[in-house]
Write a structure and sequence with these properties.
By secondary structure, this protein is α+β, with helices and mostly antiparallel strands. The chain is built from six helices and ten strands. Helix 1 packs across helix 3.
Length: 176
């Protein structure tokens, strides 16, 4: 299994379906690295500590973090399982960006951005990153989010360890 496949496997079990291999995440999304390795290998996915460290270190998207003591791992954001990331609210820049596919525009213009099966809407601080995200879903379009005004109006924002801005939803009136 190559590093891309291993990273996708980690996304699956740390963000969406830990039960697939019998993994238990704590309330903040952390899992024991030793337990993850043992369960993955028992289920036929070859995984080692050095492979996990390489994925965490070399991933351009920085999807995962290893705890300060080196014993646990978690996904930085994108969870569909209920966890508390323990991120403090932060004041966002005046504008953030969301990449999506053109086929979703009518629905977004009508009802805004919603987290769907995930815990948060993901926003980028630059248009280039948002465009890359949007291109994964079809013909990309980048929406500008008036995040500064949203924050002044009482909406909360958080920033994950890998620099992705998170919020519960973006009402349509804050989108351009």
């Amino acid at each position: 299994m190559n590093e891309v496949s291993q990273s996708k496997f980690l996304s699956l079990v740390l963000r969406h379906k830990p039960e697939e291999i019998g993994l238990v995440l704590d309330q903040n999304g952390w899992a024991s690295i030793d337990q993850l390795i043992a369960l993955a290998n028992a289920c036929g996915t070859n995984l080692s500590r050095s492979q996990i460290e390489s994925i965490v270190e070399n991933s351009d998207k920085k999807r995962f973090a290893i705890s300060a003591d080196g014993t646990k791992i978690r996904a930085n954001q994108g969870h569909s399982v209920d966890i508390a990331l323990e991120l403090p609210p932060r004041t966002p820049p005046e504008r953030l960006y969301h990449g999506t596919a053109t086929r979703f525009l009518d629905s977004i213009r009508e009802s805004g951005l919603h987290s769907a099966s995930r815990q948060h809407v993901h926003l980028s601080s630059d248009q280039g990153t948002a465009e890359k995200v949007g291109s994964r879903h079809g013909k990309p379009v980048v929406l500008t989010v008036e995040s500064g005004q949203m924050a002044r109006d009482g909406h909360l924002f958080y920033i994950s360890e890998n620099g992705v801005w998170l919020t519960e939803a973006v009402p349509a009136k804050y989108l351009n």
